[in-house]
Specification:
heterodimer, A: mainly beta, seven-stranded mixed beta sheet, four-stranded antiparallel beta sheet, about 50% strand, B: mainly beta, 11 strands, globular
């Protein structure tokens, strides 16, 4: 199985900050990488597919980049509603998720 | 509107069996890639199983041989039969849809809680 490792596991940032979350795969997954946002008590929501394709309706402050085994999710200007846990997921073969990054607003 | 509604969760003793259902509306399950993803209390997401549009099925190693995914096209519903349940199977089970084999899960249900405990 392909292992996905996210960092950091948690972070705290202020409104307006630029936030970056990284995800590393245990082998090359080309661009088969998705990002999800999960608010407590809710189902995950797909934010970005194919490493960098923003889903319809997702604010443009979210962006994704990377290929091969190293990927990043960036929030350009943090908003209060971005408080959530973020997961990366590889879809190169049977899906596996990263352990999650919990984002708190200061 | 695409909607997924899970049901069938509950409290079950170790070694027991349970069948989860995922009723879909707004699209056809047989034309999509339908998965189950679970989340243990306070933990991250774990993919469990998938059924392809061509009927092929795949499982995580942690459930292989114990869980079976299936679908009923006439009811537009996906199922997860869970046998030989263990305490570590305790989780919220989500049904999720992917439109292509690259499993971008674009729609999710609200989840159903399975608790394995004596």
């Amino acid at each position: 199985d392909i292992q996905m490792t996210q960092s950091p596991s948690s972070l705290s940032a202020s409104v307006g900050d630029r936030v970056t979350i990284t995800c590393r795969a245990s082998q090359s997954i080309l661009s088969y990488l998705n990002w999800y946002q999960q608010i407590p008590g809710k189902a995950p929501k797909l934010l970005i597919s194919g490493a960098s394709t923003l889903q319809s309706g997702v604010p443009s402050r979210f962006s994704g980049s990377g290929s091969g085994s190293d990927f990043t999710l960036t929030i350009s200007s943090l908003q209060p509603e971005d408080s959530a846990t973020y997961y990366c997921q590889q879809c190169y073969n049977n899906p596996t998720f990263g352990q999650g990054t919990r984002l708190e607003i200061k | 509107e695409v909607q997924l509604v899970e049901s069938g969760g509950g409290l079950i003793p170790p070694g027991g069996s349970l069948r989860l259902s995922c009723a879909a509306s707004g699209f056809t399950v047989s034309s999509n890639y339908m998965s189950w993803v679970r989340q243990a209390p306070g933990k991250g997401l774990e993919w469990v199983s998938i059924i392809y549009s061509d009927g092929r099925t795949f499982y995580a190693d942690s459930v292989k041989g114990r869980f079976t995914i299936s679908r009923d096209n006439s009811k537009n519903t996906v199922y997860l039969q869970m046998n030989s349940l263990r305490a570590e199977d305790t989780a919220v089970y989500y049904c999720a849809r992917a439109i292509t084999v690259t499993t971008n899960f674009d729609s999710w249900g609200q989840g159903t809680l399975v608790t394995v405990s004596s």
